[in-house]
Amino acid sequence: MVDSEVLMKQLDANGLPVVHNSDSSQADTVIINTCGFIKDAKEESIDMILRHVKAKKQGILKHVYVMGCLSERYKSDLRKEIPGVDEYFGCNNLKEIINTLGYDYKANLTGERILTTPSHYAYLKISEGCDRKCSFCAIPLMRGRYKSKPVEDILRETQKLVSSGVKELILIAQDLTYYGVDIYGRQNLAELLKLLADTKGLKWIRLHYAYPAGFPKDVLKVMHERSNICRYLDIPFQHINGQVLKKMHRGITGKQTYELIEMFRKRIPDLTLRTTLMTGHPGEGDKEFEELMLFVERIQFDRLGVFTYSEEEDTFGARNLNDEVPEEVKNLRAERIMELQRGISHNLNLSKVGKSLDVIIDRKEGDFYVGRSEGDSPEVDNDVLIHSNTQLKTGEFYKVKITAAEEYDLHAEYIQ
To answer: What confidence tier does 39 reach under pLDDT thresholds 50, 70, 90?
Structure first.
């Protein structure tokens, strides 16, 4: 999304009208930004390409271009299989895309973009690539080695976003916690957070995609001290069984994982903890999976998602491990975890009934205003559905009282 927003700004600056995720028949050129992370994402990207190549053949479109991770990794194969695309570009070919379209790349627009999110929140990418060696992950093959954005560039981009009305900044990277190692010689996320937290007008800073091994503990100190850093952490643990973690090359043991979570909750008692888990990785038998289920039951994660293992070409897993767990077993295990999590989420939500929360309003939907609490990231977490006779403004913060709870959503009343 962020890459698309940067491209949109460049196109706009060259006088090209551009829209995001539109079905408008007025456009004659389509640029598809693809994902190549796992099988489902690849299939979705290819379906999108085929649909628009068909539209080109029918004369509805003049040009179809493809960019992003799938194109980076499988460019030659895609050219052979889907020749109807005018040109394929990788992840870091912004200048080439602009030049191919017959326009000039504007170097003075570095750090600027057209937001596709509501104007009150934005994602901020603080690095690109990854140096981790997870056995299942193809991201380093597509995005390359870890490359931190200099602090000055991040602060400059933040100022521009905040001056345009952004109140919530969601920090993203393939690995937030490695930030700074390549250019400063040390993990520098805590120092970056201090500087971002000092930005006037920035109400919430949210952390996505932290890595558990070598987690920088000074981040927790800054999170505790700065009120505009959300008590929220997205940290994918993937598994808890020691042998599975070892085969995953995660660099952390099950015991260390429990100790890390204990430290999180001791230092930030009101922390909302989101994680991602994986079922069906090579080495996960019934015993290892039951250990994972027990982990979910014990920890009571606030937010949780599950992937099934997908063997990706050229990864360590594909080269050296046997994809031995049947797909139906992978899926059944994922369903069991999500069924367990549904109950956990419902109980956690029920505990909030009668309490007051500060929420930001994202939109109005029917009779409800749809908001989010400090513990909720857009689109992936809970919504707070607010009943109010008073008109509430999108992008503004309000205090509400929780009146009812569903498995993944809360109902609330606006407190005058």
So the answer is: confident
Q: Which residue has the higher pLDDT, 101 or 332?
A: 332
Q: What is the pLDDT of residues 96-106, one digit of tens each?
A: 888 888 888 88
Nearest to 360 by CA among 346, 348, 374: 374
Alpha carbon distance 90, 128 (integer Å): 14
> Nearest-CA neighbor of 303 among 213, 234, 379, 374?
234
CB 126 within 8 A of CB 174: no
Q: What is the CATH number of domain 121-350?
A: 3.80.30.20
* Residue 36 confidence (pLDDT): 74
Q: Where are the domains of the chain?
A: 2-109, 121-350, 356-414
- Between CA 345 and CA 338 the distance in angstroms is 10
CATH code that applies to domain 356-414:
2.40.50.140
Token duo for residue 34: 């693809």
| Confidence band for 24, pLDDT divided at 50, 70 and 90 | low
Query: What Rg value do the Cα atoms of the chain yield, rounded?
Result: 22
How far is the CA of 186 from the CAs of 35, 68, 234, 280, 400, in angstroms?
A: 30, 29, 21, 35, 42
pLDDT score of 25:
66
Q: What pLDDT band is residue 27 in, cutting at 50, 70 and 90? A: confident
CATH top-level class of 2-109:
alpha beta
Residue 248 to residue 125: CA distance in whole angstroms: 25
pTM of the model: 0.89
pLDDT at residue number 59? 86
> What tokens were used for 374?
């400090």
User: d(Cα 341, Cα 264) in Å, to the nearest integer?
Assistant: 20
Cα separation, 127 vs 98, in Å, equals 23
d(CA 404, CA 351): 10
